[in-house]
Amino acid sequence: MAAHPPIDRVTLEDVRAAARLLDGVITRTPVQAFRAMSEVAGAPVVLKCENLQRAGSFKIRGAYTRLSRMSDEEKARGVVAASAGNHAQGVALAAQMLGIHAIVYMPVDASVPKLAATRGYGAEVRQVGDSVDEALGAARAEAARSGRTLIHPFDHLDVVTGQGTVALELLEQVPDVGTVVVPLGGGGLVAGIATVLAEAAPHVTVVGVQAETAAAYPASLAAGRPLSGALGATMADGIAIGTPGDVPFEVLQRLGVQVRTVSEEEMSRALLLVAERGKQIVEPSGAAGVAAVLAAEPGSLPGTIVPVLTGGNIDPLLLLRVVQHGLVAAGRYLQLRVCIDDKPGSLAALLDTIAAAGANIVQVEHTRTDTSLTVSQVLVNVQLETKGHEHCTAVVERLRAGGFAVA
After folding, report:
1. Class of residue 364 by CB neighbours under 10 A (exposed 0-12, middle 13-18, buried 19+)
2. What is the pLDDT of residues 362-378, one digit of tens each?
3. Please, which of 34, 66, 117, 213 could form a disulfide with 158 given CB 3.0 to 4.6 Å?
4. Domain membership flag for residue 214
5. Which CDD domains match (predicted)?
6. Could you tell me which residues come within 8 angstroms of residue 100 by beta carbon, excluding any fewer than 6 positions away?
7. Where would I find the H helices in 82-216?
């Protein structure tokens, strides 16, 4: 079988051809009205649930499109890829379906579930480096050494074309869509969606969203060329990419795609909201679009807003930490340090006051050895379940009114 003819720039018709290729391979993921978020955004909000896609993310769309268009000779030599997890699983599953041997490089701290799933789809996994960029360097070296084809996670026209099929579904499922908000790492998904909408629905606004500690696109777009940015710590490993891809960057720049950034706190609050009110489990990068909508001025995003939940492959341990972080950010969890007299009844009085304020006590620790204390004082660390920021404030005020020194 001959390779698919190369394309110079992705078009709507290219994406429609990819949709036909993917028919029966991928899941047509559902959309879900999100009333709890609509009230905050001041407009209808509908979630596009790519977290329910095969292999847990949108990545299978681009991976299968890319692999299926390789020549028979290329398929026989095998492929190599690099990823923090979602592209790894997409490539591994696509390669398994097409009978191609795959080697996937993943960072040394890649999540255990993503490693297990990638191996479960039949790929050979090699762990190297602390980031996707380092893993990608190792994958490029392997491709040069072995003759395998490098399946880039975002910087290839076929990958962008496959990812664009998300937008074709969206237009059918949410015909009144006005804004699509998409997590942005290297840019393949945003570029594919923007390409389709620019031709099929040019009135629709596309917003790409990066983690503010790992955001290479804002500076790159300002400079007019892809620049390498510093990768700070972020829970959103799926969009922590140091350098934009040439192919997607050209699309975002040409089409004037907006790019916004969100904080770790905003992503954790978004993940919690999606889990608690939307009943969807997503990874932090998958919640970045929701975080951007929550951070936006109500009414500033036109029409029906569709955040794309890009992936649901989250390590349960990370989920636990993120949910706890989200509870704190939402005022649902409060930790206090209270200095009390070291005498019988003082601790009971403190706990009674907290109970009277309607907070639920999760944990209590007290210490007598802090250097800030006198010999007649005890420092109490207390963790509470609360009902929101106003309740947190009320609890603290109640304690201070009762004569307690709250830090």
Report:
1. middle
2. 999 988 777 777 778 88
3. 66
4. yes
5. ACT_ThrD-II-like, Thr-dehyd
6. 67, 70, 75, 78, 79, 94
7. 86-98, 112-120, 132-146, 157-163, 165-173, 188-200
Nearest to 84 by CA among 209, 185, 188, 167: 185
Considering the domain architecture, whether residues 218 and 249 belong to the same structural domain is answered as: yes
CA distance 296 to 37: 12
Same domain? 305 vs 370: no
d(CA 142, CA 59): 22
Q: Is the dihedral of CA 128, 67, 217, 178 positive or negative?
A: negative
Tokens of 11: 């078009």
The answer to whether residues 91 and 116 touch, using CB atoms and an 8 Å cutoff, is no
Residue at 385 is within a domain: yes
Residues 6+ apart with CB under 8 A from 266: 291, 292, 294, 295, 329
How many domains would you assign to the chain?
3
Contacts of 99 (CB under 8 A, 6+ apart): 75
Domain CATH number, residue 135: 3.40.50.1100
Same domain, 78 and 48: no
The model's pLDDT over 15-58, given as tens digits with 9 standing for 90+, comes to 999 999 999 999 999 999 999 999 899 999 999 999 999 999 99
Domain membership of residue 77 as a residue range: 59-157
CATH number at residue 365: 3.30.70.260
Beta-ladder partners of 91 = none
* pTM passes above 0.90: no
Q: Are 135 and 151 in contact (CB under 8 A)?
A: no
Residue 267 amino acid letter? M
